[in-house]
């Protein structure tokens, strides 16, 4: 099932989505770039190779295997009640996404995990290639948390596999630098995470970075009041303030970054200036995504 669904059908689909978004974000650019596009493509691609290998040969097979084994153990929420297959599928899919929302928050709040997730956030531009800029250590750590989620939810192998595919597509989409028609994106964002919403999460302002943790469904942030939408895209500076020197962000430095002394987040903007800007932003809410 894994090879048939993932390798034969889904990999070409994900590659196709990447190509389409890559073209569209160049033609309809949302945020101005601050770096050479092709230099970043090269860096992000090389950094992502270990993660791609682990994703294909460890992570997804491990999640599907756990779901298969759990089908024998009959452990987890979905095995505690009787319901139509489609309903159990839907519940498991939604709960898997909720578990990713929690995992994303933990990546930011637990210092040890932030070491690895930091590699993703140090990108000084945000586009579809950032969707692949993850340190392999983060992927290895996620096996334990997400594996536990699969078992506790009682998700079937098919649900797990389809969720991973939708997850990858959604990650590409909301990391892209594609400018959607504002009204369309505003409506779409009521249910799904969009490029404008996730762009705020990659801001150098800490209170903005500590928001918008959802992956597929945007309502998790609304439910837990971690949503932040009143930021104009032109005001967002992408990256982490203490890692803003692009000459530092080489392939070698990014791969060894989690194993070095991590700098404390310091913002260059004064607090009073930030508060003034906040009042201006609130006054412009009608123009923004909120």
Features:
290 residues; mainly alpha; globular
Structure, described:
This protein has 290 residues and is mainly α. 61% of the residues lie in helices and 0% in strands. α2 packs parallel to α5 (136-153), α3 crosses α4 (111-121) and α3 packs antiparallel against α5. The longest helix has 37 residues, at 37-73. It is globular. The chain starts with a helix and ends in a 7-residue tail after the last helix.
Structural class: mainly alpha
The rounded Rg comes to 19 Å
- The shape, in one word, is globular
Number of domains: 1
Percent of residues in helices comes to 55-70%
Would you tell me the overall average pLDDT?
91
Summarize the structure.
With 290 residues, this protein is mostly helical.
């Amino acid at each position: 099932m894994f090879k048939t669904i993932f390798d034969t059908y889904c990999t070409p689909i994900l590659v196709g989505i990447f190509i389409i978004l890559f073209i569209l974000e160049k033609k309809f650019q949302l945020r101005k770039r601050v770096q050479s596009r092709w230099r970043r493509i090269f860096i992000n691609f090389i950094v992502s190779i270990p993660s791609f290998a682990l994703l294909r040969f460890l992570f997804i097979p491990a999640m599907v295997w756990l779901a298969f084994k759990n089908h024998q153990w009959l452990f987890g929420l979905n095995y505690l009640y009787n319901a139509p297959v489609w309903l159990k599928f839907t519940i498991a899919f939604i709960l898997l996404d909720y578990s990713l929302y929690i995992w994303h928050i933990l990546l930011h709040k637990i210092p040890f995990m932030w070491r690895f997730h930091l590699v993703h956030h140090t990108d000084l531009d945000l586009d579809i290639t950032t969707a692949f800029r993850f340190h392999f250590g983060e992927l290895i750590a996620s096996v334990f948390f997400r594996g536990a989620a699969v078992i506790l939810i009682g998700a079937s192998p098919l649900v797990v596999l389809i969720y991973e595919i939708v997850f990858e597509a959604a990650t590409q989409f909301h990391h892209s630098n594609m400018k959607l028609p504002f009204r369309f994106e505003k409506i779409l964002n009521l249910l799904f995470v969009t490029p404008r919403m996730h762009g705020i999460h990659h801001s150098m302002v800490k209170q903005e970075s500590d928001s918008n943790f959802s992956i597929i469904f945007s309502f998790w942030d609304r439910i837990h009041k971690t949503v932040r939408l009143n930021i104009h895209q032109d005001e967002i500076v992408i990256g982490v303030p203490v890692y803003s020197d692009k000459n530092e962000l080489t392939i070698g430095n990014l791969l060894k970054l989690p194993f070095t002394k991590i700098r404390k987040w310091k913002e260059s903007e004064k607090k009073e200036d930030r508060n003034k800007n906040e009042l201006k932003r609130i006054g412009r809410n009608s123009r923004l995504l909120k």
